[in-house]
Amino acid sequence: MNPSPAIVILGPSALAGARRIQALYPQAEIHGLQGRVADVERTYDDFGDNLRALYRAGTPLIALCAAGIVIRSLAAVLGEKGSEPPVLAVAEDGSAVVPLLGGLGGVNRMAREIAAHLQVNAAITTSGELRFGTCLLEPPAGYVLADIEQGKGFVSDLLGGQAVRIEGDAPWLAQAKLPVTDDAARVIHISPHSRAVNSDELLIHPQQVAVWVERAGTELLSELHQALQSSGLAQQSLACLLAAPTLMATAELHAAAAQLKLPLRFIDDAQQLPPLHSQHANLRLLLAAAPIDPTQLGRPRGRLTVIGLGPGAAEFMLPAARQALDEAQDLLGYETYINMAGPLRPEQVRHCTDNREEMQRARHAFELAASGRRVVVVSSGDPGVFAMAAAVLEALHESTDAEWQRVELQVFPGVSAARATAAKAGAPLGHDFCLISLSDNLKPWAIIEKRLEHAAAADLVMAFYNPISKARPWQLGSALDIIRQQRSPETLVVLGRDIGRPGETLRTLTLGELTPDMVDMRTLVIIGSSQTCRFPRADGGEWVYTPRSYPQP
């Protein structure tokens, strides 16, 4: 399966068309030229460099521009035909869809999908597909070509006028316009069995074989290859690996599935299994009468990902976090953060809860993931800094539910509020620093006071989270009283409000000037050390930083 395509545009006139195509491929990101196109998921500085980088990464490309620009941009990196991703040129107004590259990667299928969505005709030029109404070298889902190179010559023969006969069950070929005769010398074989391919045939393997794994160890792959060989079944006929839920967290099983590029499903009810073909030491080969749809068997291992959005701007979000969001079926979090996580697809389920319901949210996330769903818990900033990662791990630590323990749990970092604010100001966290939450909802105020005293005495730069709220209007003032016992009034302070979001503000002042009414719950407060300093910027602002060196005693 191809990764999500990139939709590349040069100017704002193509944005409307790009959005129409994005509605067909909701996980696709629109790439726009920096300084010329706004409100897109990604920007680039050079069209050719961006296109070549995406092509090398195997990303399907949909470029809303002239075909010639795409061809000239990619000419230097065109490689093997069998490994190229789909590349399409689409007119800015959506009036033309031209598949350029990736005939074996599904480019004609994509062209037809886009053309149907835009209500135009796709400019298909592939000889075999035009003649026969199907691409024999790219069978539909559930069928795999045994030998692509041998297949090219076979299709060439058919285009040259040779007839063909079909042996085996392939309903999709019945709809094709092939030159079929019963006595043809050339034959299309549809078979799950492994054998050498003759020069006068096209061998296509239906994915009818499932592997039931009873025990997964380091020898699983070699055992599977031996089982296939002794049973005469082709590896290309494999549709999926199956196992009991008790093996759900077994690393060797997941490694084997990844290496074979096969889906892995877990089944409680043995009656769901396809018929047995052969029994082996630690696995069974199951052979169905038709290609297997793995999504109809059991369930996948559930996945729970805890992500941080960063400060809010899309360009500060980790690509891994964005991918997790794109793949999620369920998203849980504070409503404001889930709204910030867009674009989201209509079918993605949003579970919005109050910011004070973190443990309930974490438990709900595990319940969903334990059922086999892909779940994302959304935090702002970094999920491990006063955010949801600790709550999720606490919920798992307290649970005795074996299903929760089997969930694939991963935590992706984000740009924390302290780091985002520091970067805007310069480098006030350039030396030793600490992060302190002034909220006493989950810890006693006496503990906060002790930490403030020690941090101030140690001359650490301090970043304050949750500095003030309507329920805690006095605590920042009390914190400042403690700090002022150790720090001079000239100590630099940075206030960052909504950094990375619309309306962000950054202010530099001194500890002597700072008053609690300058701060609200959306402000990150950085109290400098004795060494933190500032100097003017060319644009009229100023840089703040804490030197890496420290005076020797």
Brief characterization of the structure:
With 553 residues, the protein is of the alpha/beta class. The chain has 17 helices and 28 strands.
List keywords for this structure.
Rossmann fold, Nucleotidyltransferase, domain 5, six-stranded mixed sheet, five-stranded mixed sheet, 29% helix, 23% strand, globular
**DSSP helix fraction:** 25-40%
**Largest β-sheet summary:** 6 strands, mixed
Q: Return the structural class.
A: alpha/beta
User: What is the straight-line distance between the termini?
Assistant: 63 Å
Low-confidence segments, given as residue ranges, are none
- Rounded to an integer in angstroms, the radius of gyration calculated over CA atoms is 30 Å
State the total count of DSSP E strands. 28
Strand share of the residues?
15-25%
Please give the CATH architecture of the largest domain. Answer: 2-Layer Sandwich
| Tally of structural domains | 5
By CATH, the superfamily of the largest domain comes out as Tetrapyrrole methylase, C-terminal domain
What is the averaged pLDDT score? 92
Overall body shape: globular
Number of helices: 17
The spatial strand order of the largest sheet comes to 3-2-1-4-5-6
The CATH topology label of the largest domain is Methyltransferase, Cobalt-precorrin-4 Transmethylase, Domain 2
